[in-house]
Amino acid sequence: MEYEVIIPAAGSGTRMGAGKNKLFIELNGRPIILHTLDVFAADRDCSKMIAVIQPKEEKIFKEMTAGREYEGKLEFVYGGAERQHSVYNGLTAVSGEIVLVHDGARPFIRRPVIRQLVREAARSGAAIAAVPVKDTIKKAVRQEVVETIDRSSLWQIQTPQAFRLSILQKAHEWAKAEDYLGTDEASLVEKMGDIPVKIIESDYDNMKITTPEDLYFARAVLEKRTHLNG
Ligand code: CTP
Ligand code: MG
């Protein structure tokens, strides 16, 4: 089933501290963002990739992707100050029925998860990738434990997050009108309250590259895949 994907890539990578957009850091000799784009480029069900970028980085992105066979299905849109604003801008370029939002900083997403998300979004309206929480989670006030939260009901939320376009558009318009800033797309849909958000179990490899130590893990994932896939 066909879908379009918005890929927010307009951040600055502050927590990575690399002095540049972390998406330009290379893994196996290629920038992180190209690894991410490759997954969707190779997926025939993906009809459009909308990369949301900073205007000052347009030249770098265009040079990086020039001449690739997927150039035709790649579009660039300018981002905003917050990730949510970037996604909002990306929405202006979407025309299909199903839209995914996937962080440029998650290069290890795999097609089976994407397929399940698309199917579930078409069926029920909203579906997000997640993994079960592994650690014990406690709530604390001033470093004193208040409560241990039952882990069996907790999920660590990732992207992609998949939606029927009309639902995501409505949620973003609502958030804009209310000046509400969420940490992911689904939280906007949840706030509106009329559509259930379904969870699709993903895998721990689909990490977001955020801080320097994440690069070690990312390199290990790539190495594992090279050995497994030849
Ligand atoms: N992003 C974006 N527009 C923003 C902020 C973030 O498109 N205004 C993108 C990032 O490029 C990244 C994704 O959203 O692919 C997830 O954000 P995050 O991991 O927080 O990346 P950064 O914002 O770049 O990192 P930091 O928060 O450490 O500065
Ligand atoms: Mg950020």
Task: Describe the secondary-structure layout.
Blueprint (H helix, E strand, L loop, with lengths): L2 E6 L17 E2 L2 E2 H10 L4 E8 L4 H8 L8 E5 L4 H9 L6 E4 L9 H14 L1 E7 L4 E5 L2 E6 L5 E10 H14 L6 H8 L5 E4 L10 H18 L1
Parallel strand pairs: 1-4, 1-6, 4-5, 7-11
Antiparallel strand pairs: 2-3, 6-10, 7-10, 8-9
Helix pairs in contact: 5-6
Cytidine-5'-triphosphate (CTP) binds next to helix 3.
Brief description of this entry?
The protein has one domain (3-126, 157-229): Spore Coat Polysaccharide Biosynthesis Protein SpsA, Chain A.
Question: Can you describe what's shown?
Answer:
This protein has 230 residues and is α/β, with parallel strands linked by helices. It is 35% helix and 26% strand. It contains seven helices and eleven strands. The model has no long low-confidence stretch (mean pLDDT 96).
What CATH architecture would you give?
Answer: Alpha-Beta Complex
What is the highest CATH level, the class?
Alpha Beta
- Count of spatially separate domains: 1
Helix fraction by DSSP (H/I, runs of at least 4): 25-40%
CATH superfamily: Spore Coat Polysaccharide Biosynthesis Protein SpsA, Chain A
* Series of secondary-structure elements, N-terminal to C-terminal: EEEHEHEHEHEEEEHHEH
Distance between the termini: 29 Å
Task: Determine Rg (CA atoms, Å).
Answer: 18 Å
The hetero compounds bound to this protein are:
cytidine-5'-triphosphate, magnesium ion
Q: Mean of residue pLDDT?
A: 96
Assembly type: single chain
- Total helical segments: 7
Range of strand content: 25-35%
Largest sheet features: 7 strands, mixed
